[in-house]
Design goal:
Elements (H helix, E strand, L loop, with lengths): L16 E2 L9 E3 L3 E3 L19 E3 L2 E4 L6 H5 L2 E4 L8
Antiparallel strand pairs: 1-3, 2-4, 5-6
Length: 89
Amino acid sequence: MGTNETTGIVPQTRWNDTLAIRPWTRPAGSKADLVSPVAGQVVRSDGTVLSNLTFNWTGDASDASHNLGSSDRKLMDGSFALINPPRSR
C-alpha cells in the first residue's frame, strides 16, 4: 500500500508495512521487519516517528490473500493465526 493511500475504519495514511512474512521462514518478528513508510520504525498517521516504541510478535501461521484494488482491500491482505495460544499463568 502506498504511503499516501487513505484507508481504515478511521481513515488514515502512512500505514506501517512489513516485509513479506512466511511461517516456514520467520515465525516471529519485530519493528525491524517494518519496511515502510520508514524502515525499522513505527510511524503515526501524522508522520511522527515513534523511535522509542518497540514490539515483537509470534504466530503459528501467516498468510496473504493478495487482494488487489482499493486501499481497504490491500489493508486486509495479510493475517496471522494463533493456533496454540499461550496458557495463562
